[in-house]
Specification:
Blueprint: E1 2-9, H1 24-41, E2 47-53, E3 71-79, H2 82-90, H3 101-115, E4 124-130, H4 142-151, E5 154-160, E6 184-186, E7 192-194, H5 197-212, E8 215-219, H6 220-227, E9 240-246, E10 249-260, E11 286-287, E12 295-296, E13 303-307, E14 310-314, H7 316-321, E15 329-337, E16 347-356, H8 361-377, E17 379-386, E18 394-402, E19 407-414, H9 444-456, E20 463-464, E21 470-471, H10 482-496, H11 507-510, H12 517-533, H13 548-559, H14 562-573, H15 576-582, H16 592-600, H17 608-625, H18 632-648, H19 652-666, H20 672-680, H21 698-706, H22 723-729
Helix pairs in contact: 1-2, 1-6, 3-4, 9-12, 16-17, 17-18, 17-19, 18-19
Family: Belongs to the ku80 family.
InterPro entries: DNA_bd_Ku70/Ku80, Ku80, Ku_C, Ku_C_sf, Ku_N, Ku_PK_bind, SPOC-like_C_dom_sf, vWFA_dom_sf
Biased composition (Basic and acidic residues): 706-719
């Protein structure tokens, strides 16, 4: 944790600005707001104190009536909260009394020393001074201040003046920017403000202090853009301790998360809208799906998994025993060249940095030898990693990483066979000798144009740093997620303004992922060339026009002999479609209707009876395996086509027998809902009115549907009369 003392100058020099321009005090308050918001939204445990100087009254423990006057400890050291944020926004007012910034620094150091007595976990101290250094000051205790800050390891940050400006002696000449004499300070809004002699003296004193202690000085124009970002919660890295196994060699290592997908902490809580102080509770009960809705205790239930048409119960003990048992490890399985690990093989939600165990010199030497050997041979290690005893084993690679100050192995997870999705795409002609898709080969002019486009949009050297050198833009460690920033912005606004609507999207957030202005300007001419070289046209479907030539062709085709016409028809109708139909040997579960029609339409063999039997089995399977009404529609389509084809083929007996059997199966098995659907769709027995070969009357069919009588089996062939029967009749 860190202890921070924020010192704010509220004297008269901080409240001077041209009309319509923000004063230094207003800009400082905005900067303090940003610091507090960053601490609050990152859920930081750092503690902050607020000290004002240049106030009309005095309230600090060092006040003796003569020294340390006009200094107030506005808020004692504590964790940042909304009360402090509201205080900064509403209670800080300018005064007409100047203050001594050096005395304020002494009061801040003394307050941190006293407030931290008995507190543990604070590893650093920081003093942040917001001032334009326009008030008088005394340097009698300058050496004492520097000594105390060095002994307590207190860092000093100054926000306000620009100490990098070269001091210029006053003269009577007017510079080109309109400022006379001394160096002019540039405010965040671009307005230049001339520095006074008092300010230059204060800057010289601060420069001397910063040379002796650790710290930095930032102008308002430098600090505010950086502070405008909301920071996420900082998590202390915890080492994953294990042993790197290579055969019978074991190296103690520590693993630290290098990159991991950040999840926004959803600390939402349900509250009663009319009284947010009351937290509603949750009461959950379980009931059976019956008419009485019988309540069931949670202890009387177990989880069940669907296996086919059966629910398999699994108790807590069963679930525990079915887990894969493994021991915590990081075991090298072998080595391979870097080019064998394709970039699209990288899996997982993060990267682990593997280093030797802290304090183990032998482990550091062994791991360093492995890292350098992998680097020099351009290879990686394939390893098996088990995070803990109850974790599933993972496959990954260990990639060497060497920098000037450190070296390590990066663990990147790799996929198993089940994780890989294989797709086949058309190939482009990658070489001069390749003849594949040669018509898509780009010209040399097109290739050069795209090269120029990439060069013009190169992000590696876009922005200028403080030394005037070009540096990379959109670095991941400096690019914040605009979604999270928007959430933080809305939460902060609603907390401070509960009755106002949410604000518009901040321009700072809107510009997070916008291309730099230089990139846009440089790429415009090249993009115009790209448009000319790669002409993209909208392809519209043209309507078939009836031309005279087409009409004459149709007439000629009509006058051709029948043999010729038949050949033309064969070309249009035959082909792959008919070949695939001949390959169908049974009614499948994917396209049962098409399979059934293909079987009964075969010319080489009568497959109607066999196809009907297969279709009946498929209908029964679809209904019984259906989870709820999942496959009912497909089963109903099968039943309809079976009934229709039975009528066409004059085979109603096959369908009627199946319907009687299906009813006897469905109702006892709890599939009454499908039978009701059969009745609604009028897919019951085939009557004489529909097919002459049927011996079922309309009345019998209606009684069968209502369930009053069961149709007698009329499918049995009547027994042939023998000679003895004829004699008996005579």
């Amino acid at each position: 944790k860190e202890a921070i003392a924020i010192i704010l100058d509220v004297g008269p020099s901080m409240n001077q600005a041209p009309p319509g321009v923000a004063t230094d005090l207003e800009t400082s308050i905005e900067g303090i707001n940003m610091i507090l918001q960053r601490k609050m939204f990152s859920e930081s445990k750092d503690e902050i104190a607020l000290i004002l100087f240049g106030t009309a009254d005095t309230d600090n423990p060092l006040d003796d009536g003569e020294c340390y006057q006009n200094i107030v400890i506005k808020r004692a050291l504590g964790v940042a909260d909304f009360d402090l944020l509201q205080m900064v926004q509403s209670e800080l007012q300018p005064s007409g009394v100047p203050g001594d910034f050096l005395d304020a620094i002494i009061v801040a150091i003394d307050h941190l020393e006293n407030a931290l007595q008995g507190k543990k976990g604070f590893k650093s101290r920081r003093v942040i001074l917001f001032s334009d250094l326009g008030g008088p000051f005394g340097d009698q205790e300058l050496d004492k201040v520097i000594t105390v800050m060095q002994n307590t390891n207190t860092e000093l940050n100054v926000i306000g003046p620009n100490l990098d400006d070269d001091d210029a002696e006053e003269d009577d000449t007017t510079r080109g920017d309109g400022a006379k004499g001394g160096q002019a300070a540039v405010k965040p809004n671009g307005v230049r403000k001339e520095k006074t002699a008092q300010q230059r003296a204060g800057e010289a004193l601060l420069t001397h202090i910063l040379d002796q202690v650790s710290g930095e000085c930032y102008s308002f124009s430098e600090a505010l853009p950086v502070l405008s970002y909301f920071q996420s919660r900082q998590i202390k890295p915890i080492a994953w301790k294990c042993r790197l196994e290579i055969g019978n060699l074991e190296i103690p290592i520590n693993g630290y998360v290098k990159v991991k997908d950040f999840k926004l902490k959803q600390s939402w809580k349900r509250v009663y809208a009319q009284d947010t102080e009351v937290a509603p509770g949750t009461l959950r009960t379980y009931h059976m799906n019956n008419e009485e809705e019988t309540e069931v205790e949670k202890e009387d239930m177990v989880e069940g998994y669907r296996y086919g048409n059966t629910i398999v119960p699994m108790s807590v003990d069963d679930k525990e025993n079915m887990k894969y048992k493994a021991e915590k490890c990081l075991k090298v399985l072998g080595f391979t060249k870097v080019e064998n690990i394709k970039r699209h093989y990288y899996l997982g939600d993060g990267v682990l940095s593997i280093t030797a165990e802290k304090g183990d010199e032998a482990a550091a030497v062994a791991l360093s030898a492995l890292i350098r050997a992998l680097f020099e041979t351009n290879t990686v290690a394939i390893a098996r990693r088990v995070y803990a005893g109850n974790s599933a084993p993972r496959l990954g690679c260990l990639v060497p990483h060497i920098k000037a100050k450190y070296e390590c192995l990066f663990w990147v997870e790799l996929p198993f066979a089940e994780d890989i999705r294989t797709f086949t795409f058309g190939s482009l002609p990658l070489t001069e000798e390749s003849t594949i898709n040669k018509k898509y080969k780009p010209t040399a002019q097109q290739l050069n144009c795209v090269d120029d486009l990439i060069t013009s949009m190169d992000l590696s050297k876009v922005q200028e740093n403080e030394d005037g050198e070009k540096e990379e833009a959109l670095k991941p460690k400096l690019t914040f997620n605009p979604y999270f920033q928007r959430v933080y912005q809305c939460l902060q606004h609603r907390a401070l303004n509960p009755d106002e609507p949410l604000p518009e999207l901040s321009p700072v957030i809107a510009n997070y992922l916008e291309p730099p202005a230089d990139i846009v300007a440089n790429s415009l001419p090249v993009l115009d060339r790209v448009k000319k070289l790669f002409k993209l046209e909208v392809v519209e479907k043209t309507k078939d026009e009836q031309t005279g030539e087409a009409m004459f062709r149709e007439d000629e085709a009509a006058n051709d002999p029948a043999v010729k016409k038949r050949k033309l028809d064969d070309k249009l109708v035959g082909g792959i479609q008919n070949l695939t139909k001949l390959d169908v040997k049974e009614v499948g579960s994917v396209t049962p209707v098409d399979d059934f029609k293909s079987l009964i339409s075969r010319k080489d063999k009568d497959m109607f009876d066999e196809a009907c039997q297969q279709m009946q089995k498929r209908i029964q399977q679809l209904v019984m395996d259906s989870f709820g009404q999942q496959f009912y529609s497909k089963a109903m389509d099968c039943l309809k086509v079976l009934r229709l084809e039975s009528i066409k083929k004059s085979e109603p007996v096959i369908h009627n027998q199946f319907i009687q059997k299906l009813k006897d199966i469905l109702i006892p098995k709890g599939k009454r809902d499908f039978w009701d659907q059969v009745i609604r769709e009028k897919q019951s027995l085939i009557t004489k009115l529909e097919c002459e070969d049927s011996d079922v009357t309309k009345e019998e069919a209606e009684r069968f549907i209502s369930g009053e009588v069961k149709m007698e089996d009329r499918s049995k062939p009547e027994q042939e009369e023998t000679t003895d029967d004829l004699l008996d009749q005579l």
